[in-house]
Structures are given as C-alpha cells and as structure tokens.
Amino acid sequence: MKKIAAEILREYGPFPGVDGVNGVSFDGRRVWFASGDTLSAFDPDSGETLRTLDVASDAGTAFDGTYLYQIADAVIRKIDPETGDILHTIPAPGNGGDSGLAWAEGTLWVGEHRSCRIHQVDPDTGEILRSIESDRFVTGVTWVDGELWHGTWQDNESDIRRIDPRTGEVLLSVEMPSGDGVSGLESDGGDRFFCGGGDRAIVRAVSRPRTADAER
Any alpha helices (H) in the chain, and if so which ranges? Predict the structure, then answer.
C-alpha cells in the first residue's frame, strides 16, 4: 500500500448553528451535508448555503441522480431534495452503527463504523448483497470512475483509502493531517473529494489523486 499526504484545497464553514458534520454528498451542483436535525446544501464555488431541509441526519448521505438518501438512527430514508418529503425507508445494515453512504451501480454502499465493514445494499428492500472488510473504522464511502474509496477515523488519525472492491485490499492511502478527521466522504466526479470535518462543523475539499500516477 502506498501512502501520500492529503492536499486540502479548501475548507467550508464552520456553518452557523451546526454542531458537527455527519455525512456529505454532491448532486452535481450542490454539496449536501448532514448535521443531526437538518440536511443542508451549499454552493462549492461560493460556499453560500442554498437550502436546508428539516430531516434527521445522523450519518451518511448519498445522491442517486434524482433523490437523496440519508442515514438516521437505524434506517436509510429516500428523500425528495426539493420538498424534503420522505419517499421510502429501509433498514440500515448496521442497525444504528452505520456511517458513510454512497450510490453506485443502482445500489447503496453503506459503511458500518466500528464493525469496519462496507455493505452493498438493495435500495428497495435493504437486503445486504455483499460485504467488504476493512481494518479501520469506516467513516465515509464513495465511488468515482469505477474506484471504491472510503474514509477512516480512528485513534485521532484519518485517511481516505482506495480499496479493491473485490477483496478490500488497500491500494492507496491519502493521509489527512493529524487531528483532521473524515466524517463523510463524496467525490465530485472529478479531482475533488468533499469530506466532513466532524465536530468542527466544516467540510473540506481534498484533492483526489489520479491513482495510476499516485500508485507508482
């Protein structure tokens, strides 16, 4: 496994009235972040907060191209981002120990925090389709260009990892500065990751390494 230092491009926040960031997603235009009782969106260019929904949001957030998905307590809710209406609810695989949520291949990918696992889940039923083991607490999940990445935060150390989706082998570790944790992870589909900054109530933009170059 190769390790490289994270390049932090920008910090957004601290956001007023927000005690912590629990999950992050990107809808192609807006960055959404979960903060307990609300789900808010900001413009990644200006940093301006654009929208806030009154939705319970304890952990990961995902976007499927039309709808948001949000972990709260022991369930995952499908949410209309324009109205805030809850359209569907499924059980979360970690039964309340979940962290990190991503959408890919028509399915949800859910991190299970202290069990150090990532589950692929049917978005209609909540059925676990398969699971991948990690060796650290999972704090965020995202897919980009066919690559599976997840965040970790344990013992005050945090990284963003590219892993083999078949075996869980860590292929590349992007190490965050000491004390800067990842609480939610999402790709913008290009050269940036958006990472929750935990109880600092911020979101960081972190450069996504092009893995073919970074792994040499």
Answer: 211-214
Q: Is the distance from CB of 52 to CB of 35 less than 8 angstroms?
A: no
Could you check whether the bond before residue 209 is cis, i.e. omega within 30 degrees of 0?
Answer: no
Query: DSSP letters of 17-53?
Result: T---B-EEEE-SS-EEEE-BS-EEEE-TTT--EEEEE
The pair phi, psi for residue 211, each rounded to 5°, is -65, -30
DSSP secondary structure code for residue 15 in this structure: P
The alpha carbon dihedral of 19, 55, 75, 204 has a sign of negative
Give the Å distances, CA to CA, from 168 to 15, 95, 100, 109, 116.
34, 22, 16, 14, 11
Backbone Cα Rg of the chain: 15
pLDDT tens-digit map of 65-122: 999 999 999 999 999 999 999 999 999 999 999 999 999 989 999 999 999 999 999 9
Instruction: Say if CB 48 and CB 65 are below 8 A apart.
Output: no
